[in-house]
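Posting for a labmate who doesn't have an account.
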Amino acid sequence: MTAYRYVRSGRLPAHQTDGEWQVLLADVEAFSAARKQRAKTSSPAKRGSRAAADWPGRFETCLVAGDEVGAENLLDDALASGHDLFSLYLEVVSPALVSIGERWHRGELQIHEEHRASNIVARLFARVSSRFAHRGPSRGTVVIGGPTGERHALAITMVADLLRSRGWNVSDIGTDVPASAFALAVDGVDQLRAVCIGVTLRESLGTARETVAAVRAVVPDDVKVFAGGAAVDTDEVARSLGADARASDPRALLALLASQPVE
């Protein structure tokens, strides 16, 4: 059962054949040697720290294998080791997804494996984020989404979950949203504090610019529009879209929101 837990949590490499987990002897020997080496070199204080394990790599192993139970158990272990929701999403889940995407682009993974991993993460987000539900009054509403051409909905969901955990009411309208539909989604929203537009693809910068213009036409002047994502990699790009500021990551977005006046 100990070995089984190592496999399900991604610590011990294995593959499933006809319903049975199979482990190579060489992987068992490498695993044992690594454990002995860590025992020699790690201080007692660090052995139980969240940095003591390759959380992203182990999580990626579970996702590629389609092992949802193992992936969920690993996230539970990461939380128990000291991760909070921010570090779990940004230091464990996000690197694993990026690596899977890169492996798919290199032809090392099939498209169904990449899609299966994304679907598993989407379900895990729903289960994990509920544990961090904010108690108390809302700090205001934020509408977040991606313009036409964007497909990376998990990135939007991740940011929305993190904002909710800090007391914001978030309307996550998803990705591939036309400018006119985006404007309709923000028009007349009660206690609207900001609109966040995520852009991961440079090909989507044009539609993002149209979205910012459509949003500005319907929201009050005191509602800020922020742009973020891999394609918005400088402040100049954010300004070229017509956004008030660039949110380089979720923590930066929270800082921008915190600077907004509250009625």
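Reply:
Got it, the structure tokens are right above this. The CA atoms of residues 200 and 231 lie 5 Å apart.
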